[in-house]
C-alpha cells in the first residue's frame, strides 16, 4: 500500500506544484492505477516524489505504513518497492549493450553474478527481447528502448512500477505491443501506476483513476465514473475515450475494450492496427 497524506511540493516556495494530495494506492482490484491530467498538472512531479527523487515540502508518503526515509539506505530500500520508467527511455539507459544495461542495478546491489545472469535472462524472455540481448542500444527503436528500460526495473522485482507516458513516440504496432506487455505484467501480479495523455489506452488498461489538475486531485474513481464526466475532462484539456463517446452519444453499452465491442458486432480486431475486419 502506498499512502500520501497532505503532500505539498514546489520547486521553489513561490510556485507550488502539488497541493494537499491525499490518496491511497493499492486497494483491492486496483492493479493498474491511472494518473491523468493536462500538461503541467503535476503528474511527473508526483511520480518523482513517489520514488524519492524529490522530497515533499510538507506531508508524508508511507509505503506499507512506514514513512519514506531519505537516507541512502532508505532510498535504496524504497527503489526495491517502487521502480520508475521515464517517458524518455534514454534518461535511464546508461550502458551501450542491452544485457549490460539491464544488469546495471543488480551489480549495484552486489548480487552474485549467476543470480544477475538468471534474472536478466528471465526478463528478456518475459518481454520478448531475447534477440536484443547483445545489441547496441543506439540501434534500437523507441519501443525497444522502452522495453529495455522496463526490463531494468523488472529485474529488481519491485512491487510497483511507475510508467510515465509509456506510449509516447510509439507507432500503432509499438502501442499495441506496449498494451500487451502491460497486460502480461498484470497477469503475473505486477502493480502498475500509469501516467499518459492517451485516453483510449488508459481507458482500456486502467482499473482506477485520479484526475490531477492545478496540482490537486479533482476527481477519482473507476473508468466508468471518471471518463463519463465529459465537461470535467474538457476543462482538463483531455478527450473522452472513443468507447465512452459511443456509449453516451449513440446509446451503445459501455464496453471496456474494443474487442468487446467488435465481438458484439461480429467483427474482429487487428491488435496491431486497431482496425476491424
UniProtKB/TrEMBL annotation:
Main location: membrane
GO molecular function, one term: ATPase-coupled transmembrane transporter activity
Lineage, highest ranks first: Bacteria, Bacillati, Bacillota, Bacilli, Lactobacillales
PANTHER family: ENERGY-COUPLING FACTOR TRANSPORTER ATP-BINDING PROTEIN ECFA1, HEAVY METAL TRANSPORTER
Protein name: ABC transporter ATP-binding protein
Ranges of residues in domain ABC transporter: 2-239
Lineage top rank: taxon: Bacteria
Listed InterPro entries: AAA+_ATPase, ABC_transporter-like_ATP-bd, ABC_transporter-like_CS, ABC_transpr_CbiO/EcfA_su, Co_trans_ATP-bd, ECF_ABC_transporter_ATP-bd, P-loop_NTPase
UniProt-annotated location(s): Cell membrane
Signal peptide range: none
GO cellular component terms attached to this protein's record: ATP-binding cassette (ABC) transporter complex
Membrane topology of this protein: Peripheral membrane protein
Gene3D superfamilies to which the protein is assigned, alphabetical: P-loop containing nucleotide triphosphate hydrolases
SMART domains to which the protein is assigned, alphabetical: AAA
UniProt record similarity statement: Belongs to the ABC transporter superfamily.
Functional summary from the UniProt entry: Part of an ABC transporter complex. Responsible for energy coupling to the transport system. Probably part of an ABC transporter complex. Responsible for energy coupling to the transport system.
CDD domains named among the record's database cross-references: ABC_cobalt_CbiO_domain1
SUPFAM superfamilies per record: P-loop containing nucleoside triphosphate hydrolases (SSF52540)
GO biological process: cobalt ion transport
Keywords in alphabetical order: ATP-binding, Cell membrane, Membrane, Nucleotide-binding, Translocase, Transport
Amino acid at each position: 500500500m502506498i499512502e500520501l497524506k497532505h503532500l505539498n511540493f514546489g520547486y521553489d516556495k513561490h510556485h507550488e506544484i502539488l497541493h494537499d494530495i491525499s490518496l491511497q494506492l493499492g486497494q483491492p482490484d486496483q492493479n493498474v492505477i491511472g494518473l491523468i491530467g493536462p500538461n503541467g498538472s503535476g503528474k511527473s512531479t508526483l511520480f518523482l516524489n513517489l520514488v524519492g527523487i524529490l522530497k515533499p515540502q510538507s506531508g508524508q508518503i508511507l509505503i506499507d505504513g512506514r514513512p519514506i526515509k531519505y537516507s541512502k539506505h532508505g532510498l535504496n530500500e524504497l527503489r526495491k518497492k517502487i521502480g520508475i520508467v521515464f517517458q524518455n527511455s534514454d534518461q535511464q539507459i546508461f550502458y551501450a549493450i542491452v544485457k549490460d544495461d539491464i544488469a546495471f542495478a543488480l551489480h549495484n546491489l552486489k548480487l552474485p553474478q549467476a543470480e544477475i545472469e538468471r534474472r536478466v535472462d528471465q526478463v528478456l524472455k518475459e518481454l520478448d527481447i531475447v534477440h536484443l540481448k547483445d545489441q547496441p542500444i543506439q540501434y534500437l527503436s523507441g519501443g525497444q528502448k522502452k522495453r529495455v528500460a522496463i526490463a531494468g526495473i523488472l529485474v529488481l522485482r519491485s512491487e510497483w512500477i511507475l510508467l510515465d507516458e509509456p506510449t509516447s513516440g510509439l507507432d500503432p504496432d509499438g502501442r499495441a505491443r506496449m498494451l500487451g506487455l502491460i497486460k502480461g505484467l498484470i497477469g503475473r501480479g505486477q502493480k502498475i501506476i500509469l501516467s499518459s495523455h492517451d485516453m483510449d489506452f488508459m481507458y482500456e488498461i486502467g482499473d482506477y483513476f485520479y484526475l490531477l489538475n492545478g496540482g490537486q486531485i479533482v476527481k477519482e474513481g473507476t473508468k466508468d465514473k471518471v471518463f463519463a464526466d465529459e465537461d470535467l475532462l474538457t476543462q482538463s484539456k483531455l478527450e473522452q475515450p472513443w468507447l465512452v463517446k459511443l456509449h453516451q452519444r449513440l446509446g451503445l453499452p459501455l464496453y471496456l475494450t474494443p474487442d468487446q465491442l467488435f465481438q458484439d458486432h461480429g467483427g474482429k480486431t487487428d491488435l496491431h492496427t486497431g482496425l476491424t475486419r
